[in-house]
Amino acid sequence: MTVNITAEEMAKQRGFIEKCAEINSRRETPPTAHVHTFGCQQNVSDGEKIKGMLAEMGCGFSDIPEGADIIIFNTCAVRENAEDRVFGNLGALKHEKRRNPDVIIGVCGCMVQQEHIVKKIKRSFPHVDLVFGTNALHTLPELIYGQLTERKREFYVPEGDGVIAEGLPIRRENALKVSIPIMYGCNNFCTYCIVPYVRGRERSRSTEDILAEARTAIQSGAKELLLLGQNVNSYGKELGTSFPELLRAVNAIDGEFRICYMSSHPKDATRELIDTISECGKVTRHFHLPVQSGSSRILGLMNRHYTREDYIKIVEYIRERIPDAALTSDIIVGFPGETREDFEETLSLIREVRFDSLYTFIYSPRKGTKAAEMPDPVSAEEKGGWFRELLDVQGDIGRGLYEKYVGQTLRVLCEGEGRTDPSLLTGKTPQDVIVDFDGDRSLIGGFVNVKIERAYQWALVGKIV
Ligand code: SAH
Ligand code: SF4
Ligand code: F3S
Asked: Which terminus of the chain is more exposed, N or C, with fewer CB under 10 A?
């Protein structure tokens, strides 16, 4: 099965980029575009391609929608509040359309892969000109050409399990830290999650395409590569390769840089993977391993394919092989049918594992998922109470956790000026912990050795040695 968009189709879209650039060059001033990405790194990466295509069509960019000629919302559907935020922002664009009827307003990303959302946009947001799905990203040039030549509303959300479009132009947000998708889609169907429905089936980019992009990024000065996928651990299954193999190949590229990756699913976090990471010096010493719940009963209902005990075994093996590794996780509170006892198992798990930090979410029902059909008797109020309790427990665990770094000398990627104190520099340790230190601005974009002198709850302070 081939999922790559053909070279002919990509060439056709390139033709539309040129036609749009020609139309835009006839204007007195170049058009400006505002691209707002909601959602995860995968969406941010898509946003970089949207901007890449628009830039080649001759667009400049603006951080605000007011006054822009093209406005694109690249949306996320993972929780209800993500969708609410998009609708709120979209409603506000009505005024902009009234002020400037020529503005092209487009909505893409995960939300518009859902029929009920497309219907709602059709009905309630008549100022939206263009809707295109996650599989239609590469057709943006043709869609924009359509808008520039004949103004009519267009909704293009092709059906199917998903595609891979190689060779799209990219306008990166950050030249130092570069995101590289290695696979798209998800086959796991965790019962709470909308992602498999809006991103299609798992499909991996070829190792050669990934390595070529990685090498180019390193040659252009990138110091951190973020390998992206909904479950990177299952990379390459259909290609006869694997994520550990890919990591080894990226690690072997010349130069000093760091390799990060996300997300990784505990069910596929094998010993082989952990061994590989321990042997690959460029791979981050940070495991983000979303556990979701500490109750094996709830993990079963979530369709996660591991138990609490399996998870703890993985953590033990990581700590045995890579003792300095940082460990973070995602937790969902209030999954349908979760009881106080289940929740207490989550509390006991986080006390046992002592995560460096947690991303915590209150369960949000997603239309079309299995969990949305399950009985959910616990009130929102009670779930809110559990959520605050979880934050308190993690707050206590987090306090003092960074003390262990005091006195250590760590290799730090210097990323820029300090966030709270611009007279300092800031960077990240191999464990992804923020550290501020004194130094010359010329160090930004390189690696330095920093001796840690003080630890706060969220960051370290040190001195270059
Ligand atoms: N593929 C990634 C997850 C992407 S979504 C992974 O498996 O790690 C990021 C996080 O959002 C998930 O780990 C989960 O904790 C949370 N999440 C997903 N769906 C949710 C829902 N319906 N309600 C609340 N949180 C959810
Ligand atoms: Fe969603 Fe589960 Fe896939 Fe992650 S692994 S994207 S949580 S279905
Ligand atoms: Fe959101 Fe889509 Fe990512 S639903 S979390 S933007 S894959």
From this structure: N
Angle between helices 308-321 and 340-353 (to 10 degrees): 10
Mutate to test the pocket of ligand 2, among 199, 201, 265 (most ligand atoms within 8 A of CB): 265
Per-residue pLDDT of 299-344, as tens digits, reads 999 999 999 999 999 999 999 999 999 999 999 999 999 999 999 9
For 263, phi and psi rounded to 5 degrees? -100, 165
Q: How far is the CA of 48 from the centre of ligand 3 (A)?
A: 15
Which of 42, 110, 193 has most ligand 1 atoms within 8 Å of its beta carbon, as the pocket-test mutant? Answer: 193
Query: Cβ distance 250 to 225 under 8 Å?
Result: yes
Q: Is the dihedral of CA 13, 14, 18, 24 positive or negative?
A: positive
Q: What is the DSSP string of 379-429?
A: -HHHHHHHHHHHHHHHHHHHTTGGGGGTT-EEEEEEEEE-SS-TTSEEEE-
Q: Tens digits of per-residue pLDDT, 59-84? A: 999 999 999 999 999 999 999 999 99
Distance in Å, CA 195 to ligand 1 centroid: 8
Among 202, 129, 124, which residue's Cα sits nearest to residue 161?
202
Written as one letter, the residue type at 339 is T
Q: Which ligand 3 atom minimizes the distance to the CA of 194? A: 4
- Which residue, among 318, 304, 307, has the nearest Cα to 354 in the 3D structure? 318
Q: Is 233 in the pocket of ligand 1 (CB under 6 A)?
A: no
